[in-house]
Amino acid sequence: MKFSMNSRLGSVPPYVFVHLGKLKMKALSAGKDVIDLGQGSPDLATPDYVIKAATDAMADPKTHGYPIANGLLEYREAIAAWYKKRFGAEFDPNTEVLPLIGSKEGLGHLLQALLEPGDGVLCPSPCYPAHINGVILPGGKPLLMPLKEENGFLPDLDAISEADLQAAKVMIINYPNNPTGATLPDTSLLVKALGLAKKYGFLVIYDNAYSEITFDGYKAPSIFEIEGAIEYAIEFHSTSKSYSMAGWRLGFCVGNPVAVEALAKLKGFIDYGVPSFLQRGAIAALEGPDDYVIKASKTYGERRDVLADALKEIGWEVSRPKAAMYIWTRLPEPARSLKSLEFSERLIEEQGVVISPGSGFGPEGEGYMRFSLIQSPERLREAAKRIGIFLSSLKAAV
């Protein structure tokens, strides 16, 4: 036969969460009680007022037709108003704001819209898998910026080679960071990135999907708090984490109008966007009170502390991130003979606990594991107990 998976898609490794999902289903089929701390899918309930806005809109037959390609004007205006309120940044809803089917879709499609085969993209490693895979699929070349623990999991922009800076069409930055939970102490890294963008002419993609899930008084910045950023930046955000709406697929981007226009044009050929009644729910979320987000952050922060304490009791010391919904930590001593994926696979099979292997987030992630804070305190303690049993079995086998 003449058809098969193209070479670019074939070169991308299987999506780590799909692989873990299959192992989870196998464990469930075998009757195991599985505790899933893998994919960062919020378990908290979506706000009632958001659900009501969407269901009320669904009752209107006008919302059942094809959506407007660029999203409802009211949704774009709500996004712009939210950015003005939250970050003090102003955007034209017609040219600098674009609703998305989740920020993952938008980021992947933006790279497809911008890159020619061979174009370089400065990507963090470890990173959200879509950051690197989204570069490879349209034929781009990832130029890795290692995120080292000793540097607070921040990229060393001064260490980027002149050749890579010259080759780059895009730089991707993501804070609060997935998977590491790292945060920016201030905006100096963003200022430096924009300075490089101006000098070398590339676009900075700032993935800011976790800005609202923060702890210990930390407040995450936007790249658009920096004057002139719109000349060289676009920022991605989402209702998925902030309002526990991951399954609704409602993201958005704001920023450079050239980049927004390119993404909008591509999406016009590929999709019709999110159903209008769901956009009404997103409007209610963005225009609603801050109480829900504050409560959600408090819940994740409490879970962070419960899991950190429980892991410490079994001899696994972890740091406590100031944002996002993950704990990222190096494999403990008894497990360092294993690759992170093997650790994950065996932990699911032997103890029914799902955590994500660091290798699924890029080469710099090997040797680390990511825990998602998506279970109750009781289940987190039980997960840690089972992990302790698994670690003891590794010690005994030495």
What does this structure look like?
- This protein has 398 residues and is α/β, with parallel strands linked by helices.
- It folds into two domains: 7-45 and 291-397, Aspartate Aminotransferase, domain 1, CATH 3.90.1150; 60-287, Aspartate Aminotransferase, domain 2 (3-Layer(aba) Sandwich).
- Helix content is 42%, strand content 14%.
- The protein contains 13 helices and eleven strands.
Key structural traits:
single chain; 398 residues; alpha/beta; Aspartate Aminotransferase, domain 2; 4-stranded mixed β-sheet; 11 strands; globular
The largest sheet, given as strand count, sense and whether it forms a barrel, is:
7 strands, mixed
Helix content class? 40-55%
Overall radius of gyration: 21 Å
Find the count of extended strands (DSSP E, 2+ residues): 11
Percent range for β-strand residues: 5-15%
CATH architecture label name of the largest domain: 3-Layer(aba) Sandwich
Structural class: alpha/beta
Topology:
Layout: H1 7-11, H2 16-29, E1 35-37, H3 48-58, H4 73-87, E2 97-100, H5 103-114, E3 120-125, H6 129-136, E4 141-146, H7 162-167, E5 168-174, H8 188-200, E6 203-207, E7 233-238, E8 251-255, H9 257-270, H10 276-287, H11 291-313, E9 326-330, H12 340-351, E10 353-357, E11 368-372, H13 377-397
Parallel strand pairs: 1-10, 3-4, 3-5, 5-6, 6-7
Antiparallel strand pairs: 2-8, 7-8, 9-11, 10-11
Helix pairs in contact: 2-12, 3-10, 4-10, 5-6, 5-9, 11-13
